[in-house]
Amino acid sequence: MNPDQYRVKPGKSVRLKDWHTDDDGGLSKDEGKDLTDELLEGLAEWQERLFAESKQSLLIVLQARDAGGKDGTVKHVLGALNPNGVRISNFKVPTDEERAHDFLWRVHAQAPRAGQVGVFNRSHYEDVLVTRVEGIIDNRSAKARLKHIGNFEALLTDSGTRILKFYLHVSPDEQRQRLQDRLTDPSKHWKFNPGDLEARAKWDAYTEAYESALGTSTAAAPWYVIPADRKWYRNLLITRIVLNTLKEMNPQYPHVSFDPLEVEIK
């Protein structure tokens, strides 16, 4: 399993039909789950170092079509982190106050502080996806917004924030099954939104919009196209990539101003 094969190279155009949705890395489901459990232990340890150092931060962006697995990723991967050092933000339909500002105004306020892992469950990219497909903005405006997004992410990077962007790549057949499961299982009825069917009917338009957004991949803020038909492999890949990134950031426990060996607790 080589996570780098799922990374969108800077300056490269993306055709999603060229990216598989059902990879398994040559592993069985049980092997993948066992490996994920091992990696999650290390993930918690490195997050603690990040929190203790409090000089850097990590931003994780999750984008996907409906039923693509964003919530599942938050639960099964990021749920292993200490909630004291995690901030999860969801970006839905803008409020009147948010619409009165530039489109990144509400996003910048949710950027992670030093020592924190920030998670965007849907993100600033919604403003070049839904808005574009639904005709709220035209292609020219979308391209301008993508340029602003690139500058925004560069600002975060210059300020000590590492950025990982994950597109959870699910197939039409797998999405159909997951949406049907929400209708079949009474405990999942609340997760079904009839509006999801309208978006599904515009599959090709959303594909084009996502391909354009994925073209913003840079060395400092890379996009990864994660095969998401197999939930266990999705979790394994994202865990591996986040852990590798934290190790690259190499946060250090701060030095203390006293000698622990000289402290006597009576």
CATH superfamily: P-loop containing nucleotide triphosphate hydrolases
**Total number of strands:** 5
The top level CATH class name: Alpha Beta
Major sheet: arrangement of strands: 2-3-1-4-5
Structural class: alpha/beta
Q: Per CATH, which architecture?
A: 3-Layer(aba) Sandwich
What's the rounded overall pLDDT mean?
A: 94
Helix content: 40-55%
CATH topology: Rossmann fold
Distance between the termini: 52 Å
Low-confidence stretches: none
- The gyration radius over C-alpha positions equals 20 Å
Indicate the overall shape.
Answer: globular
Instruction: Report the β-strand fraction as a percent range.
Output: 5-15%
Any chance you could write out the topology, listing elements then pairs?
Elements: H1 29-53, E1 57-64, H2 70-76, E2 86-90, H3 96-99, H4 105-108, E3 117-121, H5 130-133, H6 139-158, E4 161-169, H7 172-184, H8 195-201, H9 203-214, E5 223-227, H10 231-249
Parallel strand pairs: 1-3, 1-4, 2-3, 4-5
Helix pairs in contact: 1-10
